[in-house]
């Protein structure tokens, strides 16, 4: 941390800003600007509030539910459509920020029991069935819905919840509901 507080050096030399989190120092966590710090806090707090307001009663229905061979995750985010993904998130840094947001949110909402089961399934290289239900105000075209869940699937793969996202190891089904809850439900089970 003492390396981050060197006086007389420009900001980019004092802090270690990398590509995965370009607005935050890797060593000490300081933000480049006050606007980015407040935006991060606002996003974190809204995710916490949405997790508390999620439908269902009790801790298990709020974050995730488990049966013998399945896991359901209710995420208070909506993935962008394929067209928005192609335009707004074309740059690799913007795409990696989107993917990191999905990873952080999913990691926070999955219980330890679910994590251990999903990591064991990944380690055993088992094929998984993933059903994603997007609830939002305006339905996407089918091809845009499937293209839009790519950052979500990449996040699941990087969290070691999926072994690969190729057709041999993943069967994917994306559905949509037309309501204003703005949430995504992810159902993971063994194929």
Task: Describe this structure as you would to a colleague.
The protein is built from eight helices and five strands; from the N terminus they run αααββαααβααββ. The chain has 191 residues and is of the alpha+beta class. The protein has a single domain (55-190), classed as 2-Layer Sandwich (60s Ribosomal Protein L30, Chain: A), CATH 3.30.1330. Strands 1-2-5-3-4 form a five-stranded mixed β-sheet. Helix 5 packs across helix 8 (150-158). The N and C termini lie far apart (46 Å).
Q: Summarize this, please?
A:
This protein is of the alpha+beta class. It contains 8 helices and 5 strands; from the N terminus they run αααββαααβααββ. The chain has a single domain, classed as Holliday junction resolvase RusA (60s Ribosomal Protein L30, Chain: A, 2-Layer Sandwich), CATH 3.30.1330.
Distance between the termini: 46 Å
Structural shape: globular
- Taken as a percent bin, the fraction of beta residues is 15-25%
The main sheet comes to:
5 strands, mixed
Structural class: alpha+beta
Task: Give me some keywords for this one.
single chain, 191 residues, alpha+beta, 60s Ribosomal Protein L30, Chain: A, 5-stranded mixed β-sheet, globular
